[in-house]
Design a protein that fits this description.
Helix content: 40-55%
Structural class: alpha/beta
Strand content: 5-15%
Order of helices and strands: HHHEEHEHEHEHHEEHEEHEHHEHEEH
Bound molecules: S-adenosylmethionine
Radius of gyration: 19 Å
Distance between the termini: 40 Å
Strand order of the largest sheet: 2-3-4-5-6-8-10-11-1-13-12
Largest sheet: 11 strands, mixed
Length: 362
């Protein structure tokens, strides 16, 4: 019975595969237990990160992604500094307490300096109170250091798949898409003191539950602080689209994604787990479900409206409604699913600070 697995002090690869393949009744038990773990370790809470997708200019050519370099269809954009800062001010004034800045990947002195300058300005406009997560891909040590110094405290770099052979099916075989370099960058981020996040896409062609179980064990062994993972959704102008007929139906991909969230919550009880936007591309209420069974971070998209269509990673990408505290001086309690929104609280990863305290007491 699945309940005997759920209560084990640690889960084996075989246990995780069994949970990922659980039938409807066992899935209910998995979700109920994960919800209980979340409530015990995190509380019925969800924290906000105002998401600003500030540029779709990308040097990479990932086979799944709509903003890959070789796709000539999207109009390439850079949101102006002014508009980014105005979105940041919106998040600050509406008590979001945190931002996530995401972009395509560029490795250039101009890009490094631009992001650094924006980070300093964001600190200025919020008197150093806005938490900032960056998700700007692989960069060198100096760049990561400069961005941290300028105020970014969290970094999300998805490994996409921890299976090297599968990773290679998803990316061109060249040095700018190296599996080992991506893992090395994750180590670098951790070493530099970022709250470090990773994640994978779920329901990819060629992906099995064995791969997904290994992905979860990778996250546990790496001792991540945060996770952003969600379903793979096709984009017709990408090379991976040719395998669309191999994919699980969308509802099954959604169910598998929710199982991944629930199992990760059981494996890593006090990390931050995002209810990602791609879930919403399958069902308008999928993020609420994710929050009920383990996720505790929500990323409302506050990218200026005129640019939202152009950050087109996959089909049916939602525009995402903005959540507001009605009164910024007296933030009101609001709920998302069954979770209380942590307006005014930046919602750092409890796991990260627990590790810090343990290090200090050594
Ligand atoms: N360039 C940065 C990087 O490489 O980390 C961040 C931007 S990238 C567009 C953000 C994430 O979008 C990727 O890590 C990937 O997991 C996700 N993504 C891209 N295409 C997707 C698709 N077709 N379905 C689901 N997620 C996708």
């Amino acid at each position: 019975m699945i309940t005997s697995i759920l209560h084990k002090p640690s889960l084996t690869h075989a246990n995780i595969v069994q949970l990922l393949e659980a039938n409807e009744e066992d899935t209910k038990a998995l979700f109920a237990y994960a919800a209980q773990v979340k409530e015990q370790y995190i509380g019925k809470k969800v924290y906000l990160r105002g998401l600003i997708e500030f540029s779709n200019v990308c040097e990479k050519d990932c086979y799944y992604c709509g903003i890959r370099k070789s796709n000539k269809k999207p109009k390439r954009f850079n949101v102006s500094d002014e508009a980014i800062l105005s979105a940041a001010r919106f998040a600050y004034e509406h008590n979001y307490a945190s931002l996530a800045l995401q972009s395509g990947e560029l490795q250039s002195p101009a890009f490094t300096t631009r992001v650094e300058r924006l980070l300093y300005k964001i600190q200025d406009l919020s008197q150093g109170t806005l938490g900032v997560t960056l998700s700007c891909g692989e960069q060198n040590k100096e760049t990561y250091q400069r961005w941290k110094q300028a105020g970014a405290s969290r970094y999300l770099l998805r490994i996409e798949s921890t299976d090297e052979a599968l990773y290679q099916k998803l990316h061109p075989n060249n040095s700018s898409h190296s599996f080992h370099q991506r893992i090395e960058r994750l180590h670098l981020l951790k070493e530099l003191g970022y709250q470090t996040g990773t994640g994978v896409m779920i329901g990819l062609p060629f992906q099995t539950t064995t791969h997904l179980a290994n992905d979860l064990l990778f996250m546990q062994n790496f001792d991540i602080d945060m996770c952003g993972m969600g379903p793979y959704i096709v984009h017709e102008d990408t090379p991976l689209f040719q395998y669309a007929s191999m994919l699980l139906p969308l509802q099954k991909r959604l169910e598998l994604s929710l199982k991944m969230v629930a199992i990760l919550r059981i494996l890593m009880k006090d990390i931050n787990i995002a209810a990602t936007t791609a879930l919403q591309a399958i069902s308008p209420t999928a993020r609420e479900q994710a929050v009920e069974i383990g996720a505790n971070v929500l990323m409302p998209n506050i990218t200026p409206g005129s640019f939202r269509d152009d950050y087109h990673l996959y089909q049916n990408k939602p525009k995402s409604a903005v959540i507001e505290a009605q009164d910024t001086e007296h933030p009101q309690t609001a709920f998302f699913g069954n979770a209380e929104i942590g307006f005014g609280k930046c919602g750092d990863s409890p796991h990260f600070f627990k590790k810090q305290r343990e290090k200090q007491s050594e």
